[in-house]
Structures are given as structure tokens and as C-alpha cells.
Design goal:
The protein is an alpha/beta fold. The protein is 33% helix and 27% strand. Strands 2-1-3-4-5 form a five-stranded parallel sheet. A five-stranded antiparallel sheet has the order 10-9-8-12-11. The radius of gyration is 20 Å and the shape is elongated.
Length: 233
């Protein structure tokens, strides 16, 4: 589930941005949760994958809020929004990823969506779970996930991590990061596919491992893989 925060206090702008987000994520079949900054949401920003920040807020100082976000989560992409172009330049102070001038056009948002969300976020996002590893595990480095003996295993190029989570847990978490289910016990990263076997019953990964591709999951898996290839061009 992709977590998005909107730091905005103008109702019409919130509605418009929410609509753009909904259309883009729905079109790509990406599950997301949207939060609007208010007193109830608090100022803990570590749980968000993407933050939209209006520099001109009535309840907060936009730049100070940006610095707070950057201190808490140095890698989380911030997209600055503003009605005035001169305010967008202040985004450099908080290392914003992109800038959107209001009213935000559909075309401008689509560019940001593909450049920041579908590319940058996938490159930078990492799993931080002390029950699995004391270090970050970048999703882009995971080749596949396998379920056996009541555990799931994350396979990287030179490491393997055992987890107590179910395969469905990983499927929900990893689908956005270009993983597909190829078999009842396997999730495979499209990023690391080298080829398919001649009979199309196995997936050959770049590390030399062969993963089964069953009839049950073949159609949906290949659809996801082709979509990944199209978006990667």
C-alpha cells in the first residue's frame, strides 16, 4: 500500500490533487492510501512514501515543515506545489524532487507521476524491519520471494532472508515494486528476469536461478511483465 500525504489547506486544491492522484494510481492498478495533513494526522512523516507540500500554508510555515520532513526522512520524495512560481524556488532549500504550479494540469502531474513515483520511488524504497534484518533491504535488490515450510524467504543476489510473513503479505507489499506471482509459492521481480524457458514453463533470472511459471498465474504474470517492460523504456 503506497502511503501519500498532502500538506495543503485549500479545499479545492485538495480535491483537485486527490482526483489527479486517484486517476493515475487507478490507471496503473496501484493500491494507495491518502492522508491530508491536519492535527489528527500529526507530524510523524516517516510512514509516507510521497509527500505533496504547498509552500503557503495557513496553519504551518511551509519551509519549516519541509525541513522537518527532510530531517525525519531524508529520502522521501517531496513535491512542492504553489500558486506562485517564485515560491517554487524555495523548494531547493528542502531538496524537493519536483515542483507543480497551480492549477496543476493533468499533463504536468502525469510527468511527475511517471518520473518520481514509478521510477524514483521504486529505486529508493527499502524494507526496514528489524525482525528480518538490521539493515535496509532495497526492493530493487530482491530477485524473488519463496514460501515453504511455513516461512517466506527473500532472495537477493548473495543473501537470503527468512521471514514469518505470509506470501500474500509480500504480494500486497511488493506488487507496486514490479513483482508478480508466477507460481503458488513464488513472487518474482520483473526487474531481474533474463528470459523464459523454451517451453515457457520456467522463468530464468539474471542470477541463473530458474523459477516455475504455472498455467494458473501465467496470463496475469505475463501481463504484468509486459507492462513493466513498456514503462521501463
Amino acid at each position: 500500500m503506497f502511503q501519500i500525504l498532502i500538506c495543503e489547506d485549500h479545499l479545492e486544491d485538495i480535491k483537485h490533487l486527490s482526483h489527479l492522484i486517484h486517476d493515475a494510481f487507478t490507471q496503473e492498478n496501484i493500491s494507495y492510501h491518502l492522508t491530508i495533513l491536519n492535527e489528527k494526522s500529526g507530524l510523524d512523516f516517516k510512514k509516507y512514501d510521497l509527500i505533496f507540500l504547498d509552500i503557503q500554508l495557513t496553519s504551518y510555515n511551509g519551509i519549516q515543515l519541509g525541513h522537518l520532513i527532510r530531517r525525519q526522512c531524508p529520502k522521501t520524495p517531496i513535491i512542492i506545489t504553489s500558486l506562485y512560481a517564485e515560491y517554487l524556488q524555495q523548494g531547493y532549500l528542502i531538496e524537493a524532487k519536483r515542483y507543480l504550479l497551480k492549477p496543476i494540469s493533468c499533463l504536468d502531474f502525469q510527468r511527475v507521476f511517471y518520473d518520481v513515483i514509478l521510477k524514483d520511488c521504486k529505486q529508493q524504497k527499502a524494507l526496514t524491519d528489524l525482525k528480518i534484518s538490521p539493515y535496509k533491504i532495497y526492493y530493487k535488490d530482491v530477485y524473488y520471494v519463496e514460501f515453504y515450510d511455513r516461512h517466506t524467504y527473500l532472495y537477493l543476489k548473495h543473501k537470503k532472508y527468512r521471514t514469518t510473513y505470509s506470501l500474500s503479505y509480500w504480494k500486497e507489499r511488493l506488487t507496486f515494486y514490479d513483482f508478480g506471482q508466477s507460481y503458488k509459492a513464488f513472487l518474482v521481480s520483473y526487474r531481474h528476469i533474463a528470459d523464459l524457458s523454451r517451453d515457457k514453463k520456467d522463468i530464468l533470472l539474471t542470477n541463473g536461478v530458474s523459477i516455475p511459471l504455472s498455467k494458473k498465474y501465467k496470463a496475469s504474470f505475463m501481463k504484468g511483465y509486459l507492462h513493466y517492460l513498456q514503462c521501463s523504456q
